[in-house]
Amino acid sequence: MKVSIAAHHLPHPEGTATGRTLHAAAEGLLALGHEVDVWSWGADPPHREAPPWCRWEPLPHQRWISMKVRALVAPRRDPAVSGWHPAPGAIPVADDPVSFAAVEPFEGAVLTQHYLTRLDAPALGRWALRDLQDRRAERRNFRRADRLVAYSERVAAHMPPSTTVIPLPYRAPSEPVAFVEEPVAAMLADWRWPPNLAALDHLLTSWPDVCSQVPHARLLVAGRHLPAIGQMEGVEIVGEYDTVSDVLARSAVLAFPCPPTSGPKVKVIEALAFGVAVVTTDAGSEGIFGSGAGCSTGALSTFGPRLARALADPVGRSALATAARATILEYHDVLPAARHRAAALGLGGARD
Question: pTM of the entire structure?
Fold first, then answer.
């Protein structure tokens, strides 16, 4: 069967977090024998080559006043002017809520919900006009979609009862990274995303106590758009990296004191896929099938002591790392995740 996907991000295995999962989703459906095409409409020209089943075409130029008036009436509707059509006979899928306006007019329109603004804005203590507009768009999308797909039970609980929960896809590497015995924690992210900045602030606040309990502990901070954080004992600023494995191969633990925002966190699933244990919060392990195996989870207030214990216990970390990779291979790797997605979309006749 055919699937046509509209997406704001470009699918690429080393692209944005959403782009990486979209690439895995499309490759999984292709591996099951379905036909897939993706339209990526982000305004900035892609820095990476699109896969053969994807075309990048930005939205047509729109008058500023027209965009503002439309946003007042029906927010997040800009892709509606794109003129996009799914392939003949294809199931139309919005990979993200902001793309749903392009998909909505077609029979069988599918909405994919990664997270919910109604949960995330209060979690960050944020009350902005854009959040109000996002919440209005979420409610409208839920009413208009023919099928609803979510990546976590928590998100689905705030959506219509017909919502299907599926695993977030991620292509696991063929082999895990080598186990690191030294007490090296890592935090890597796109630092433009506000929850990541909130997590970094908590991590750096907790770090001196961790160092006092674990001699020679080190922290690697990596990713794009990292703000200036100054010098701290045991902290190495890695900055941008070519591939996520460059950082995870040096890491004993992914340290992510995630605030109570919603949806799965790609950085957590990536670390698990590479066989790296994760110390996070309950929100940080949200959406991981198999009960979040491979993660040390708990309240944000206990994060520092839990991180110190994990860094000081290589045997325990090794067990967590083994469970971590097994979890991803069973549920979130390309093929198992694609089977869940195909069932949710009502696809049939695919080869296994």
Answer: 0.91
